[in-house]
Amino acid sequence: MVRFGIIGAGEIAHKFAEAAGMVGGCELAAVAARDGERAEAFAGQWKIPHHFGSYRELLASGSCDVVYLATTNQTHRDLALMVLDAGHHLLCEKPLALRHRDAREILSRAGERGLFAMETLWSLFLPTLNTARRWVREGLIGKVHMAGMMVSLDAPADHRVRSPELGGGILYDLGVYPLHILPFLLDTEIRDVRAIVKRDDDGIDVADLIVLDLGGCLASVHLSMDLPMTAPSVLCGEKGSIYMHGAHKARRVEARDPEGRIIGAFEDPFTNGFEHQIAHVLQCLARGETESPVVSHRASLRCAEIFDQVLA
Ligand SMILES: NC(=O)c1ccc[n+]([C@@H]2O[C@H](COP(=O)([O-])OP(=O)(O)OC[C@H]3O[C@@H](n4cnc5c(N)ncnc54)[C@H](OP(=O)(O)O)[C@@H]3O)[C@@H](O)[C@H]2O)c1
Which residue has the CA at smallest separation from atom 36 of ligand 1? Predict the structure, then answer.
């Protein structure tokens, strides 16, 4: 039984805790928050046996094997290193780090210590996006030349994505998805990047337009923190197109021929969605792997390199 410890008892930690309960072979063993009462309340809600009012106490307790780091972005580098130095495997919320050098430091440290380390990218484990990937591989829509993803949220004024102190910015928060998903779907790498970045008065990027050269395919990525939207993402190939309804949270994918006739459709009305990623982590650990073959270190490093380039 793999024992998870959670660091940070915020919004996403609740979603993770719910998902962990859906997966066999693991248990939530401990949770830590900066405020002990908060940790206790979280532990009570999810029936977690150990709770701590400091992250260091959890790491020293020996109560868990893997730490799920669910804190705000600006803390990821220091806390990830702390987790690894304490001898725990690491599942770090996206983005792994805000700069390439920090991402490299985290992954090098994991390598030196022989520990598993992975940036979370739950979308890459969704059956919908894996179906789209398989269609591309099987040639259902032919060679893909164009792709587009529009991803946004409607963030209130006090949301962490608008805060420079909390590592805010739309590229860190949502840009990370297309930067991982598009190369994953097309089984390729990002070769070149151009971007237009719109910043607010605090210097936070609130909207980005990024163009990616993915080899044979040029892709556009629109990001915004100022609107709710449901526009599908699309891959356009010589024999048809694939539409992903819900972008990185796709619950339905469909393929259409050039005349618009449906040639493939798949739906997964998931309620949580993190469970597939957690099951994957368990498989990696069971196989003694220190790196996920799906969210590779190389992909996380490339993503962080693009942060440096786009936000320079
Ligand atoms: N995978 C996804 O779908 C997804 C979705 C949303 C967010 N995320 C990622 O998950 C992480 C957390 O996001 P969230 O929405 O859960 O954020 P949140 O609720 O605002 O904060 C998460 C936790 O960060 C901790 N924290 C540590 N230092 C902090 C500081 N100086 N100020 C404020 N909080 C601090 C707090 O832990 P304590 O409980 O110890 O106080 C807080 O509970 C981010 O990296 C984000 O990118 C992922």
Answer: 8
| DSSP count for the chain of H helices, then E strands | 10, 14
Query: Residue 310 to residues 69, 101, 278: CA-CA distances in angstroms?
Result: 25, 15, 31
Query: What separation in angstroms does the CA of 30 have from each of 73, 158, 180, 190?
Result: 21, 29, 30, 38
- How does 32-45 read in b/e, with b if 16+ C-beta sit within 10 Å? bbeeeebbbebbee
Predicted TM-score (pTM) of the model is 0.98
Task: Give the start-to-end residue ranges of the domains of the chain.
Answer: 2-122, 127-269
Atom 44 in ligand 1: residue holding the nearest Cα: 72
Instruction: Confirm or reject CATH 3.40.50.720 for domain 2-122, answering yes or no.
Output: yes
- Assess whether the region 2-122 and the region 127-269 belong to the same CATH fold: no
Q: How many CA atoms lie within 13 A of 8 on its CB side?
A: 22
The domain 127-269 is classified under which CATH number: 3.30.930.10, 3.30.360.10, 1.10.3720.10, 3.10.129.10? 3.30.360.10
State the distance from the centre of ligand 1 to the C-alpha of 9, rounded, in angstroms: 8
Cis peptide bond upstream of 95, omega within 30 = yes
Top mutation candidate among 71, 158, 179, 281 for ligand 1, by most atoms within 8 Å of CB: 71
pLDDT tens track for 162-194 = 999 999 999 999 999 999 999 999 999 999 999
The Cα–Cα gap between 69 and 117 comes to 11
Angle at 179 between CA 178 and CA 181, to 5 degrees: 55
Other Cβ atoms within 10 Å of 60 Cβ, number: 11
pLDDT value of residue 230: 84
Asked if 204 and 164 touch (Cβ cutoff 8 Å), the reply is: yes
Q: What is the model's pLDDT at position 229?
A: 87
69 Cα to the center of ligand 1, angstroms: 9
Phi, psi of 97 (to 5 degrees): -155, 165
